[in-house]
Write a structure and sequence with these properties.
- By secondary structure, the protein is of the alpha/beta class.
- It contains nine helices and 16 strands.
- Strands 5-2-7-11-8-12 form a six-stranded mixed sheet, sandwiched between helices. Strands 15-14-13-16 form a four-stranded parallel sheet.
- A hairpin with a 4-residue loop joins strand 9 and strand 10.
- The longest helix is centred in the N-terminal third of the chain and has 16 residues.
- The mean pLDDT is 88.
Length: 341
């Protein structure tokens, strides 16, 4: 029988991210993203061991430099886009049992994509499960930004809308949000689960789950998420950065095709102008062939719209942040930075 030894933190960090390439080792506040979760796990007083499961020798080196234990490389078969957390945890626990005779009592799941959690939150979630032997797991949650009582699905083949939730609340979709039940969303910051639940039930939660309530959701899955987390880390607006705005981001939706008659996007332009005023470098980029004949009408329209920028370029240059529909949508930039800007 394996020896049961306290709390094991497992940090999954595969190398094949598509949305943000190599996001797990991308620099965040001066250090690789994964290093934040490693340091938090090591600093938690009730965590006994911090292990990184990765398929990359480079990631393994970075993780060891940050203080983590990396006793194996994860097989490629469970390091794919559709690989699941349960596969990663079962593999890690199997390897530790077979090679070290080691089995923890609790497994702490720290995703490297949530660098803004606190050590106190980690310790609190672990203590919550230790104090409740009748419970299978603890999962961190935050108030959901949107209520599912106002969400719909499309009924086929009638094509009619039907409420997503058949809640028993008459016309819940027509009620004020304040009159509806409070709903929580798992925020991906901290999960704690009993090792026997992982191995015997092949589940990351089991059936009896306690909430660990948090106020925010700062999981990083896209370039926009990365930018939002970076700015929210210290609450200060960005300064000294380079922002590239596509011309399309500055044009009202549906009017992009004809520059002479295009309408401005006031929200995106106001954010651009504020970023410029804060001392950031602002570049507007266009598609097509560069040249005076092409540049003049663009420059004229940007002037009419009151856009303050440093230069106009054809083809997207290197930048800290790119604002367009494919990277950081202008409406999202306005929403996340509205308070700071």
């Amino acid at each position: 029988m394996p020896q049961r030894q306290g709390v094991l933190a497992i940090i999954p960090a595969r190398s094949g991210s598509k949305s943000v390439p190599h996001k797990n080792i991308r620099l965040f506040r001066g250090k690789p993203l994964i290093a934040h979760s490693i340091e938090q796990g090591l600093a938690a007083g009730n965590v006994d061991r911090v292990l990184v499961s990765t398929d990359s020798a480079e990631y393994a080196r970075i993780a060891r430099d940050a203080g983590a234990d990396v006793p194996f490389l994860r097989p490629d078969a469970i390091a794919q886009d559709l690989s699941t957390d349960i596969e990663v945890f079962v593999h890690a626990l199997d390897w530790l049992q077979q090679n070290e005779g080691y089995r923890p009592e609790l497994c702490l799941h720290l995703r490297p994509t949530y660098p803004l959690r606190t050590v106190a939150d980690i310790e609190g979630a672990v203590e919550l499960l230790l104090a409740r032997p009748d419970v299978d797991s603890v999962r961190s949650v935050a108030p959901a930004p949107h209520t599912p009582y106002k969400m719909w699905r499309l009924d086929e083949p009638s094509g009619l809308l039907r409420p997503l939730l058949e809640s028993g609340i008459p016309e819940a979709h027509n009620l004020a949000r304040q009159a509806l039940p409070t709903v929580y969303l798992q925020n991906a910051a901290i999960d704690v689960v009993r090792a026997e639940v992982v191995m015997n039930a092949r589940s990351m939660t089991g059936s009896r789950i306690l909430p660990y309530r948090m106020s925010d959701i700062h999981d990083i899955d896209t370039e926009f998420d990365f930018a939002a987390a970076a700015w929210n880390a210290d609450g200060a607006p960005p300064r000294g950065k380079t922002f590239v705005f596509s011309l399309g981001a500055l044009v009202a939706q549906g009017t992009e095709g004809d520059l002479a008659n295009a309408l401005p996007n006031p929200g995106a332009i106001s954010v651009l102008n504020r970023l410029h005023a804060l001392g950031n470098t602002v570049v507007v980029h266009c598609c097509g062939e560069a040249g005076t004949a092409a540049t003049d009408p663009v420059t004229r329209r940007l002037g009419e719209w009151g856009v303050t920028y440093h230069r106009l370029v054809w083809g997207r240059p290197q930048a800290d942040f790119v604002v367009d529909d494919g990277m950081i949508p202008p409406f999202a930039l306005q929403r996340w930075l509205g308070g700071a800007l």
